[in-house]
Structures are given as structure tokens and as C-alpha cells.
């Protein structure tokens, strides 16, 4: 087996953490949506999600101020909207209108959910100790919604530099964990 040195700037594509999601926030009557792929599950119950949101992103200050957001999980049918949302600023554009996304009232938070997404997670910020240094928020999922009509969702996974894979084959292996 011949291995060679790999550029550190491309490691992200090897460890890609999960599906690309659309994060929604709202403040002072204005809702926004951003594309995010830097997130990780941290705990099962209560469900905690860690995520990085750039301080240059319009959603950063809104999340910091309101301490709530929704994580909306799109499928491959929304791939063009996901990329489009990620390539423009919510300071200049109403992304819901531009990309044909339908905001829906959430049950527990002020940020909207996205109707077209396969699943929606209503979240509150649980811990901000890593925000100032790393832009890393720890979110607690307080309510979750899923479209039960979609049996095998094909989620998008970012590999870097505009390259995505689509969730594919499912393996079911026996587990002794309870």
C-alpha cells in the first residue's frame, strides 16, 4: 500500500461530520437561513449538538443574541438551494424568498423551520464557553420533527471545494448496546 502525505487543508473532506444542514435564526422580525456542515452530536439525552458558525456570518450575532435556532435537514432535492443559501449573505438577501424556502412557525423557539426539509430540530444554546475562542456553539435540541413519508432520506455531505456526496447504502449490524 502506497500512502503519501495529504494536505492539512483537505482533512475536512476525510472527516466530514454529517449531513449539510440549513440553520435558521430570527431577530427583530427578520428571519435568516445559512448553510452549515461543521457540526457534531455530543450527547444523546438530552440531545446536544456542537457546531461552528463563523463570526463573519450574519447568523452568528443573531444566534449569540437570541440563543436559539433551528437545524433543518435537507435532502438531495434541495441541493441547489443549499449551495445558493451558502453563497450569499442574509444581510443583503431574503434567502427564503430567493430560494423558494417556506418558513414555518416552530413550537418551542422563535426561529422558523423550513417546510421543504426532511427533518427539523428546534434548538437552544446550552453552552457558550467556546464561542469567543472557536465560534463553537453547543445546542440542545428541545423539539424534533421528521417527515415520516420519507423512508430513506438522501442527505447531502460536503467533502470540500463544492464537492458533495449523497447518503447511500445502509448497513444494519447487530449491536449489544442498550
What does this entry look like structurally?
The chain has 178 residues and is an alpha+beta fold. It has a single domain, classed as Roll (Pnp Oxidase, Chain A). Helix content is 17%, strand content 35%. It contains 5 helices and 11 strands. Strands 2-1-5-8-9-4-3 form a 7-stranded antiparallel sheet. A two-stranded antiparallel ribbon has the order 6-7. β3 and β4 (48-52) form a beta hairpin. The longest helix has 9 residues, at 58-66.
Summarize this entry quickly:
This protein has five helices and eleven strands, in the order αββββαβααβββαβββ. The chain has helices spanning 11-15, 58-66, 79-86, 95-98, 131-134; strands at 21-27, 30-36, 39-43, 48-52, 68-73, 103-104, 113-114, 119-127, 136-146, 156-160, 163-166. The chain has a seven-stranded antiparallel β-sheet.
**What do the pLDDT scores average to?**
91
CATH fold-level topology: Pnp Oxidase, Chain A
* Cα separation of the termini: 38 Å
CATH level 1 class label? Mainly Beta
Pattern of helices and strands: HEEEEHEHHEEEHEEE
Number of helices: 5
Q: Can you tell me the CATH architecture? A: Roll
User: CATH superfamily assignment?
Assistant: Electron Transport, Fmn-binding Protein, Chain A
Number of strands: 11
The Rg value, from CA coordinates, equals: 17 Å
Hey, roughly how much beta strand do the residues contain? 35-45%
Rough outline: globular
Low-confidence stretches: none
Instruction: Quickly count the domains.
Output: 1
Biggest β-sheet description: 7 strands, antiparallel
Range of helix content: 10-25%
With strands numbered from the N-terminus, the spatial order across the biggest sheet is: 2-1-5-8-9-4-3
SS-derived structural category: alpha+beta
InterPro entries: Flavin_Rdtase-like_dom, Flavoredoxin, Split_barrel_FMN-bd
Family: Belongs to the flavoredoxin family.
Keywords: Flavoprotein, Oxidoreductase
Domain Flavin reductase like: 13-165
